[in-house]
Amino acid sequence: MHTGDQGQRAEAPAAFLPPPGGWLTPELRIDAGRTGPAGRPPQDIRLLGQIDLPGEPASAAKARGYLRVVLAGLGHPRADDAVLLVSELVANSARHSDSRLPGGKVTVAVAQHGGTLHIDVIDAGSATSVPWVRTDTDAESCTGRGLWLVQALASAWGWVECDAGRVVWFQCAGG
């Protein structure tokens, strides 16, 4: 698993970092009532929703709309940040991953653990690129700020390669 800036390994895990492959990947669905060995999600993690979207740029707007609906009744103080960040990650998937190829998809999964939102964006990955935070984007550039925003606004974030492709995840801790 990679966390933080440019996929560096975490020295100290956040409150509930997912195991390799993520908790919310298609292979590891959450069952909030289940307890189990280490590597399982905390007992009180709750899956709020999951959606599969086409691997195309328009899916960023669909992901924003979906997340707004999912988070509407929660009153989470970081909901707007989460909506912005999921949009950036889905746009990155549609631009940089193999999900952009015909028939490709991007999956967004949303969970809550206490006051923390946890969001996975799962795509097909890419043999030619890995997530990294650009530091060379100038003020006039129209792109290149997605992971910079994730790094700036998320409480924790990271990425991991898995059987499904790649999971880029982030957390937004409440107040």
UniProtKB/TrEMBL annotation:
Gene Ontology MF terms: protein serine/threonine kinase activity
Source organism superkingdom: Bacteria
Domain (Histidine kinase/HSP90-like ATPase): residue spans on this chain: 54-170
Keywords: Kinase, Serine/threonine-protein kinase, Transferase
PANTHER family, per the entry: ANTI-SIGMA-F FACTOR RSBW, ANTI-SIGMA-F FACTOR RSBW-RELATED
Protein name (record): Histidine kinase/HSP90-like ATPase domain-containing protein
Organism from which the protein derives: Sphaerisporangium rufum
